Amino acid sequence: MFPKKDWSTQERRALTAIEIEANLAQHPGWQLHAGALEKTYRFANYHETMAFVNAVAFIAHAQDHHPDLSVHYGRCVVRLNTHDVQGISGTDFECAARIDALLAAP
Ligand SMILES: C[C@H](O)[C@H](O)[C@H]1CNC2=NC(N)=NC(=O)C2=N1
């Protein structure tokens, strides 16, 4: 029903610490924490938080890249890493940008 594709244009390899720093500078609010990219999104209430969570799940399915989500009443913590390279890849940053775009002003 929902399209799924190998969407990443990124080479599947672990980025170096310098590459991660350079990418973080282009992705406001994201930081490296315990081996993953992490960002906390805040919302007015549970309903808004869950709307965000469901939109992220839709992206994750379509892109076959699935962030860990920690869901709270007015907050969702998103964590991204790439299992097969045991690190952070360009795919993680691409996914981070797509999640941020959900909340960008039209
Ligand atoms: C086979 C499949 O593409 C992989 O297992 C995908 C699935 N979703 C994933 N999600 C995340 N966050 N990292 C991965 O490395 C990953 N790998």
CATH superfamily of the domain at 34-102: Transcriptional coactivator/pterin dehydratase
Specify the structural class. Answer: alpha+beta
Ions, cofactors and other bound molecules: the ligand C[C@H](O)[C@H](O)[C@H]1CNC2=NC(N)=NC(=O)C2=N1
What's the architecture of the domain at 34-102, going by CATH? 2-Layer Sandwich
Taking Cα atoms only, what radius of gyration do you get, to the nearest Å?
Answer: 14 Å
> Largest beta sheet, briefly?
4 strands, antiparallel
What is the name of the CATH class of the domain at 34-102? Answer: Alpha Beta
Query: What would you call the shape?
Result: globular
Distance between the termini: 27 Å
The overall pLDDT, averaged over residues, is 93
Question: What fraction, in percent, of the residue positions are helical?
Answer: 25-40%
Low-confidence stretches: none
> Strand portion, in percent?
15-25%
Elements, N to C (H/E): HEEHEEH
Q: What is the strand arrangement across the widest sheet?
A: 1-2-4-3
Number of strands: 4
Tally of separate helices = 3
CATH topology of the domain at 34-102: Gyrase A, domain 2
Protein name: Putative pterin-4-alpha-carbinolamine dehydratase
Organism: Paenacidovorax caeni
EC number: 4.2.1.96
Keywords: Lyase
